[in-house]
Amino acid sequence: MKLSEFLYLLAFGIKTVIFRNKQPIVGSVILTDRCNLNCRHCSVNNITGKIYSYEQIISDMELIYKMGVRMLFLYGGEPFLWNDGGHALRDIVLEAKKRGFFSVSVVTNGTFPMDLPEADLIMVSLDGDRTRHNLIRGNTYDTVMENIRNSPSGNICLYMSVNKLNKDSVREVCLTAQTTVNVRAVSFNFHTPYPDTEELALSPEEKEKICGVILEMMKKGVPVLNLKTAFPYIIKNTFPVPCRQSLVIENGTVYTCGRCIATPGLCGRCGYFFAAEYGLAFSGKISVIADMLKTYLKYI
């Protein structure tokens, strides 16, 4: 990250904490809800099957940039499926960079070749060891790992959503992040229980145990892109929701924090670590702010 960008984010944080600014800084653009998988914990894939037009994606990016977003995530469905009029995912990443976003990350299931060095991070879903990952995502583990190893750049971050099915394989995913070529770090979420996936939700006791494992792995040098100071709040869901500094845009419609805000009662059961981390940092939790600066400077 450039010094000018770091200073911009620092000034944003100070302004937000002192003056309770609600301007967003992190934004996600949904390119499509089309996906080649049908994962057991997912509620947002293949609802419409639409691939949004290149013009719409550019319009969405320009809108959230004007709103203040500087850290951009590109989501699906599966974003590597996106194409329109000869344009592919790389074109979107390059256009985002051209428009001034400080960081551009892609969130993928990892089943497509990840030849995308222009992205700052490629967040690759790995939901456990081979057995548990395949239980959730179909027989894809070996393909994902092969694509990671064949990636031309070291911009990959593993991305695990922890639920009832894979909660006992957090340690394995940490060790995979530590020992696999091209992997920079690993990031965790807890399952957010949409109405059709309630049975996968974790109890506070299970969350506490899992955070204990992650903390143990951190102490052993595993590169984890999460903030340990936020764990107590994440375990008990006592962080501020929704996170006003984050938004999602899909086909011109903007959602504060994420699309789950449209589901009654779901905010109070949110499992997104980043929502907790940003919400706590920008509400003035000094320990979380310090942790965020240290962690982000190291891995992003």
How many individual helices?
A: 10
> Roughly what percent helix?
25-40%
What is the mean pLDDT? 94
How much beta, percentage-wise?
Answer: 15-25%
Short synopsis of the structure:
The chain has 10 helices and 10 strands.
General description of the model:
The chain has 300 residues and is of the alpha/beta class. It has helices at residues 3-19, 54-67, 89-98, 130-137, 141-149, 170-179, 204-219, 231-236, 273-281, 286-299, and strands at residues 26-30, 71-75, 83-84, 87-88, 103-108, 121-125, 156-162, 183-190, 246-250, 253-256. The strands form two sheets. It has an eight-stranded mixed β-sheet with strand order 8-7-6-5-2-1-9-10, sandwiched between helices. Strands 3-4 form a two-stranded antiparallel ribbon. β7, α6 and β8 form a beta-alpha-beta unit. α6 packs parallel to α7 (204-219). The relative contact order is 0.13. The model has no long low-confidence stretch (mean pLDDT 94).
